[in-house]
Amino acid sequence: MRTTCTKPKPIAKGKCPLLVPQNHPPHNLNNELAKERNRAAAERTLMAWIRTSLSLITFGFGIDRIVEAIRSSRLSDSGRVDISVRLLSIGFIVIGNLSLMVAIAQHQQVLRRIRRHDFLYTPMLPIATLTALGLLIVGTLALIILLVR
């Protein structure tokens, strides 16, 4: 991108003129500050999804390990972990991983949109709704397994 020296307003003697790219409107300080606030909000949102995903993954792994430790501490003839506990654990881990992947993709999309000069709001994929639906499915399956036993 070529830049040219333009003088939008008369410049005081001894001051440097602004460098403005050709075919690009001059930067508006309010717009640039708003973009920075949006970028910071996107970072905070990604960090919240990282914490949520990590919690889901840890919870899934923890359930499996705790149930396995309880069963192995008993002097029972069966040392295997029940398949329903394993499925529940896998469900939490998968939902955590999928939520994190979608959050990363959405974060990159938001950053690309902020960098554009013709920013236009468009609704994004509702990660929270998808995560809630995934947890609803896992919870319903867990309830069905417990009721059937």
How would you explain this protein's 3D organization?
By secondary structure, the chain is mainly α. The protein has one domain. The chain has 3 helices and 2 strands. The chain has a two-stranded antiparallel sheet with strand order 1-2. Helix 1 packs antiparallel against helix 2 and helix 2 runs antiparallel to helix 3. The longest helix is centred in the middle third of the chain and has 45 residues. The N and C termini lie far apart (68 Å). 9% of the residues are buried.
Condensed summary:
It is built from three helices and two strands; from the N terminus they run E-E-H-H-H. The protein is mostly helical and 149 residues long.
Basic shape: elongated
Q: Low-confidence segments, ≥5 residues, pLDDT <50?
A: none
In N-to-C order, the SSE pattern is: EEHHH
How are the strands of the largest sheet arranged? 1-2
Structural class: mainly alpha
Radius of gyration: 26 Å
- SS element count, helices: 3
Fraction in helix:
55-70%
Strand content: 5-15%
**Structural domains: how many:** 1
Q: How many DSSP-defined strands?
A: 2
Mean pLDDT: 80
**Largest sheet at a glance?**
2 strands, antiparallel
Question: Whole-Å distance between the termini?
Answer: 68 Å
